[in-house]
Amino acid sequence: MPAAFLLINCKLGSDREVINRLSKIPIVIEVYRVYGAYDIIVKVASDSVEKLQEGLKFDLKRLDNVVSTVTLVTKEV
Question: For the whole model, what pTM was predicted?
Answer without folding.
Answer: 0.88
